[in-house]
Amino acid sequence: MADLSGGPLSEAALAKINLFLHVTGRRPDGYHKLQSLVVFADIGDTVMAEPSAMLSLSLDGPFGDLLEISDDNLVLRAALALQGRARAGAGAALRLTKRLPVASGIGGGSADAAATLRVLARLWALDLSAAALEDIALSLGADVPVCVGSRPRMMGGIGDELTPAPALPPVWLILANPMRGLETHSVFAARDAEQVSAPVTLPENFNSAADLAAWLRQESRNDLAPAARGILPEITRIEAALTGLPGALYAGMSGSGATCFALFASRNSAVAGAQTLRQAERDWWIEAAEMVG
């Protein structure tokens, strides 16, 4: 039983970026098989947990009012899944500070669920390995296992095959979202079901941000981007705006959209680019951030 006299704990739920996303096939059960290089940015939501006899959730932050506290909420689903797996009898007062746009392709909900698993494992003093948490995470969604560690990984299968990423250089990012959500299932439904990509082989390391950008440009893509652009044509404009920023090395779409990203070699160029883009597009969510790990 957890000690109810303790104070609150918190975990960061970092933004997840798919530097590329290839659909490599489909299993007989209908789940799509993917290959993706996943990285994380040093911005995101926060999940806080405080000892309590019951399980509860409150929401705040810039995007907190866009979520509902219901059985479908990923934070509550993660808490219940961990309770069931560990047979934990304690509750927790959970608070989600939502800073990332909802349904935006950067793993906000998945990162929130993963952060919930981590913070409750600490609060309830559960002796669970990272592999055990990733196993619980997979029951919550394909992107949740990779968010448990929140470090660069190669993701394969249906999100259950996680392997080390190549050595990556320091990279800065600009993330831009038009403040319109895209549901993942709608994007998958709109794509050409017959089109699949062969798995690619990555180098062992990238020596610079420019090196990484050149490989992404020549060898990779986001197989969901054409369908996402068809649903939300503004994605094309976002990618073009990011590509045109001084110092931008590569631009693409993350996950199922609509958030797009651009890579930069320095903090100064990313911060300046974000300021320029905010002045031109005041209705977009725009953030500059460093790639972590």
Describe this protein's structure:
It is a single chain. The chain is an alpha+beta fold. The chain is globular and about 55 Å long. Strands 1, 2, 3, 4, 5, 6, 7, 8, 9 and 10 form a ten-stranded mixed beta sheet that branches. The longest helix is centred in the middle third of the chain and has 16 residues, at 108-123. It has nine helices and ten strands. The mean pLDDT is 94. The two termini are 34 Å apart. The protein folds into two domains: 9-164, Ribosomal Protein S5, domain 2, CATH 3.30.230.10; 172-292, 2-Layer Sandwich (Alpha-Beta Plaits), CATH 3.30.70.890. Helix 1 packs parallel to helix 2 (108-123) and helix 5 (184-190) packs across helix 7 (225-231). The chain has helices spanning 74-86, 108-123, 130-138, 144-149, 184-190, 209-219, 225-231, 234-243, 267-280; strands at 9-26, 32-52, 55-60, 91-97, 153-157, 161-164, 172-177, 250-253, 260-264, 285-292.
CATH architecture type of the largest domain: 2-Layer Sandwich
- The structural domain count equals 2
Radius of gyration, rounded? 19 Å
CATH class of the largest domain: Alpha Beta
Helix and strand element order? EEEHEHHHEEEHHHHEEHE
